[in-house]
Amino acid sequence: MDVFILIMKLFCCVLLLTTTSAATNNCPSAKCSLFSPDIRFPFRIQGRQPLQCSVPGFDLFCRQNTTMIHMPSYGDLVVRSISYDARRLSLLDPKTCVYEVFLNLDLSLTPFSYYYAVEQYKYINCSAQIVGSSERVPCLSGSDHHVYIVESSFPVPVSCSVVRTVAIPFSYSPYLSADSSFGLGFTWKLVEEEATCSGRMLGILCSSTRRLQKYFKGN
Ligand SMILES: *[C@@H]1O[C@H](CO)[C@@H](O)[C@H](O)[C@H]1NC(C)=O
Ligand SMILES: *[C@@H]1O[C@H](CO)[C@@H](O)[C@H](O)[C@H]1NC(C)=O
Questions:
Q1: Do the Cβ atoms of 39 and 81 come closer than 8 Å?
Q2: Which of 145, 146, 148, 149 for mutating ligand 2's site (highest number of atoms within 8 Å of CB)?
Q3: Is 19 helix (H, G, I), strand (E, B) or coil?
Q4: Ligand 1 pocket member 35 (CB < 6 A)
Q5: Ligand 1: which of 31, 32, 33 to mutate, most ligand atoms within 8 Å of CB?
Q6: What pLDDT digit, counting tens, does each position of 40-94 carry?
Q7: Which end of the chain is more exposed for a tag (fewer CB within 10 A), N or C?
């Protein structure tokens, strides 16, 4: 009996691998426009590529020939490029304020983590300018408020309140911040579900890549 189960499991896994690669092979790549990135597994363009060509959470869409991704806690970002080998998704903020993206993004709601190592930084919002080494973040500041990104140990001046402490890849620097994509890169990890495949459930579980592929979080 045990041998039978073992054989069924082996058979199942062989089938699993074949269905997985077959499903991926039947997924032609797509792009939003001629010079847009090639979209393929684990991503897909909603409405243009079949559901089984992707993993949940990896859905993209086209807006005016531009490839976009919706970030649950922030909004829509532009997909600049995807490196499938390096597992890097490079993005651009259409509102051209990556530090606002860093402030509001909650990647725990997504399959992604930052491509670059992150560190805790404190966003502070001040009624008067701080004199010293910190540079205010122009896209978050106004005539009567000044936002700075400081190390988490930085003593908060009385004219400032803490907006939030967040783990972000880069602190603000006027030299690095000319473009709207600096540091805005994500990575992802996928695993295939294991050991849930038994002979009995073969037909259901081995039929779809989308069911078998999952992502996991971790660094
Ligand atoms: C999108 O691309 C098509 C074909 O290249 C072009 O005709 C159309 O004007 C473009 N639309 C926008 C909004 O750029
Ligand atoms: C900073 O404070 C100003 C004025 O109180 C407010 O309008 C603005 O939204 C605040 N900015 C952030 C990033 O919290």
A1: no
A2: 145
A3: helix
A4: no
A5: 33
A6: 999 999 999 988 888 888 999 999 999 999 998 899 999 999 999 999 999 999 9
A7: N
